[in-house]
Here is the input.
Amino acid sequence: MAARVYIFDTTLRDGEQSPGGSMNVSEKLELAVQLERLGVDVIEAGFPIASEQEFEGVRRVGEEIRKPRIAALARAVTADIERAAAALEPAANPVLHTFIATSDIHLEHKLRMSREQVIERTGESVRLAKSLVGRVEFSAEDATRSDLAYLAEVAKVAIEAGADVINLPDTVGYTTPGEIEEMFRYVIARCEPPENVVFSSHNHNDLGLAVANALAAIRGGARQVECTVNGIGERAGNTSLEEVVMAMRVRNNVYPYETGIVSEEITNASRLLTNLTGLVVPYNKPIVGRNAFAHEAGIHQHGVIASRITYEIMTPESVGRSRSELVLGKHSGKHGLARRCEDLGFNLSPEEVGELYERFIQLADRKKEVFEDDLRVLVASMRDQAFVTWNLKQVRTSGHDPTLGMVILQSGEGEVIETATGDGPVDAACQAIERALGVQGKLEEFIIRAATPGREALGEAHVTVDFGGRRYNGTGASTDIVEAAVNAYLNAANKYLAVRSGA
Ligand SMILES: [Zn+2]
Here is the structure.
């Protein structure tokens, strides 16, 4: 039997730290549900000491998600460890993940600790963690730039103190495949770990080597890979889950390992993450990019199905991309719509299906063909409305230099009409929203793109807005791009208002 490699997903923690990647608690929960469907072994849900919201995110994921283990991060200090343990309290299979740096660079410039002090702290922290939570992972931060003999010594201390998983991260994305394979071989040999201790690899992609390094680490003896959906994460990101998993699957003759990943759920996870964060995947990204299987179109045109194998090393279906993307027409009915949503990983209540159906019919009126990605965007923008206090009833803009914008907003308490001037229609309308709601935001990120091809495409807008020093993501969708953008802005403002009112 092939050896099992465990997939530790850190999209909600390391990934969430990437600029523009922030998610609120309900968004984290929604992604966690999809990660469970995807079959990851561990979900790292957050860094509880960092904020109230982070704590709440870990707690809620632990409450709702029962199958994968739920991990929480803590520095090797008492307050962090206790806070992480408290957040993990409701989790069925919690993992407390504590870390301390082991490279001389970090010891000297960041920790200002001696090697002996770090060793001592490692033992204390792991023992404390182990006394609070059944399973402990220890990470030697900046392992790949650490002195190998010292690194092995620290790992041994962590194991003796009760660590179940030893993670040797390439924190700064510096190592190479040959080097990391050697590092794992060396440290494992030196530690003589008991059978049940798992070695783990966590890589960053600063040199584009994260996936290659993860695969090399596995060859060196690692049996857990830490990764993120779409490879999001600090700076250039982390090991991309879909790439490392499919590399093992497609090249199983070279990497004879198994994972628990249901590869058909990869596309759903990737699209959901994009819709939640607005972090758009490049068209040429392996596995999940829009063009990753693009040659199929030409082949289809010529009807040369038999030649698929000449250019295709894996099928789009194997990663959950359907060959014919056209989903539904106007006459598909509510049942057809509900079933398709289920396939896409959305668990909608009957009320939500009803509302989606209305939006779908409206869209099908404006646009002949409704694609899977249109549906994903519709669901995402509808889901975001869970925060709605204010709805956009109407938006009008006219003139330029300056442009005049008028919005009519609606809430349970009635309507507000407001006008403002701005640079162009989106700015003018957003200023009118701010006036109407008495808020002031700073637009930090604004992405608009067509969800699917075609002139009547559904425009999908993502914004990140800073309100009161915190960032909020908003999503909006419409065949009118100004309306899509304004909806996204209003969505972010609604989230801010919800937080401000303590909801
Ligand atoms: Zn990291």
Notes: Residues 296-301 have pLDDT under 50 and may be disordered. The first helix runs from residue 25 to 38. Residues 14, 202, 204, 233-234, 238 surround zinc ion (CB under 6 Å).
